[in-house]
Design a protein that fits this description.
five-stranded mixed beta sheet, about 200 residues, alpha/beta, two-stranded antiparallel ribbon, disordered C terminus
C-alpha cells in the first residue's frame, strides 16, 4: 500500500477519446488531486459518483483537480459509465489492473489524494481524502476535520449496506443521497396486512 509521503507512481491509459494519457499529466503539477479508482461493474462506485461530482463542483479551482481512473474494466463499458454520469472532470480508461498493483489495493471504490508535489496525502476513504484537502485549504486542524470525515464514512458504510438490500427500482426512487437512510428505513418497514 502507498503510504502518506511517498511519491506517486506513473501509469498510462487513454482518455475517453482514445488518446494516450498518463497519471503524470495530472498529478504533481502544483495542485491537490483526488484520484478515484472505479469500474463500470462496481455498484458502490456508481453510488459514489454523485458525491464525487459534488466534491469536484464545490472545490474545483486552480489548486484542486480530480481524476477518475477506470480499473479492471472494458474500455467501452468505462466510457459508457462516464458518459452516463456526465463526468466533467478528467478520466483515464483502459489501464487494466496495473494501478491496483502499483498502489497496493484490491477493492474499489478507492480514493488517493495527492499533494501538489505528487506525494501521497491519503490512500483510502473518499471522505477522509476530501477532509485532508479541505484542511489544507482552510487551515482547519486536521484532527478536527478528520472526526467529521470518519462520521461521514460510517454513515456512508451504513447507506451502502442498506442499498445492497433493496431493489434497483427502489434505489431509482431515491433522488437525494442524504435522504437514502430514512427512505430505506421506510421501505423496509413491514407493511400492514389489508384489513388489519
Amino acid at each position: 500500500k502507498m503510504n502518506p509521503g511517498q511519491p506517486f507512481i506513473d501509469f498510462e491509459g487513454k482518455d475517453i477519446n482514445g488518446n494516450k494519457v498518463k497519471l503524470s499529466d495530472y498529478v504533481g503539477k502544483g495542485k491537490y488531486v483526488i484520484v478515484d479508482f472505479s469500474a463500470s461493474w462496481c455498484g458502490p462506485c456508481k453510488e459514489e459518483m454523485p458525491n464525487l461530482a459534488n466534491v469536484y463542483n464545490t472545490y474545483k479551482n486552480d489548486k484542486f483537480d480530480m481524476v477518475t481512473v477506470m480499473v479492471w474494466d472494458n474500455p467501452k463499458a468505462s466510457k459508457k459509465m462516464l458518459e452516463e454520469f456526465k463526468v466533467n472532470w478528467k478520466s483515464i480508461i483502459d489501464v487494466g489492473m496495473k494501478p491496483m498493483e502499483l498502489y497496493g489495493f484490491s477493492g474499489i471504490p478507492r480514493i488517493i489524494l495527492f499533494a501538489p508535489d505528487g506525494s501521497v496525502v491519503h490512500n483510502g476513504s473518499p471522505f477522509v481524502a476530501v477532509a485532508f484537502y479541505a484542511a489544507a485549504k482552510s487551515g482547519i486542524q486536521t484532527r478536527d476535520i478528520l472526526g467529521l470525515a470518519k462520521h461521514q464514512q460510517r454513515e456512508h458504510d451504513q447507506r451502502i449496506f442498506l442499498l445492497s438490500r433493496i431493489s434497483t427500482r427502489q434505489r431509482r426512487e431515491m433522488r437525494r443521497p442524504r435522504a437514502i437512510i430514512p427512505s430505506v428505513a421506510k421501505i423496509m418497514k413491514p407493511r400492514r396486512q389489508s384489513g388489519s
